[in-house]
């Protein structure tokens, strides 16, 4: 009998947290990807808009407050906000509207304690990435999506390779039994 992938997690002597740390340190698991997946799991990453609007409604503001609280926990991480529209209207108009939506989200996050240097509205997908392909008005397509984009350069919390090796060496040494001690 076969089981789902991931249904059996070996928590043996090595331990899942240690295995995860080893994957990060050896470059086998990208920390930014890991944080992006965590962000997606823990916080709604999408807010929706009314037709032809970049105004944040109450539901969007609740979601963005949750995003801001999560983002403030990770001062070394950068985020991008992508604005989207439905397929009603010209491509040029929708590209501008999508960018206004992304900028509205960025402005709200900044007002809620996120540093301006860590969040940006870098692009608008306009009407090019609909969730539901229809020529009609579709609320799910009128959205802004917040995503992890990387790390703030030269942030003091980012471990460079040399420091990570020292931390790893000290960690391994702390777990090694000294034969001189009975």
Automatic annotation (TrEMBL):
Coiled coil: none annotated. PANTHER family: LIPOPROTEIN YIAD-RELATED, STATOR ELEMENT OF FLAGELLAR MOTOR COMPLEX. SUPFAM superfamilies: OmpA-like. The keyword Membrane applies. Residues 35-152 form the OmpA-like domain. It comes from the Bacteria. This is OmpA family protein. It is found in: Cell outer membrane. Keywords: Cell outer membrane, Membrane.
């Amino acid at each position: 009998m076969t089981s789902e992938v991931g249904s059996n997690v070996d928590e043996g002597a090595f331990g899942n947290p240690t295995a995860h740390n080893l994957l990060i340190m050896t470059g086998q698991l990208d920390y930014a990807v890991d944080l992006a997946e965590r962000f997606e799991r823990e916080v709604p990453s999408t807010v929706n808009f009314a037709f032809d609007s970049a105004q944040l409604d109450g539901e969007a503001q609740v979601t963005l407050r949750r995003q801001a609280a999560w983002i403030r926990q990770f001062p070394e991480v950068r985020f991008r906000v992508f604005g989207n529209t439905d397929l009603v209207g010209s491509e040029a108009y929708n590209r501008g509207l999508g960018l206004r939506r992304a900028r509205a989200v960025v402005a709200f996050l900044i007002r809620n304690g996120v540093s301006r240097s860590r969040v940006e509205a870098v692009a608008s997908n306009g009407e090019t990435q609909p969730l539901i392909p229809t020529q009609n008005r579709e609320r799910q397509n009128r959205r802004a999506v917040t995503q992890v984009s990387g790390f703030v350069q030269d942030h003091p919390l980012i471990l460079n390779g040399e420091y990570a090796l020292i931390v790893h060496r000290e960690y391994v040494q702390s777990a090694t039994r000294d034969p001189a001690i009975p």
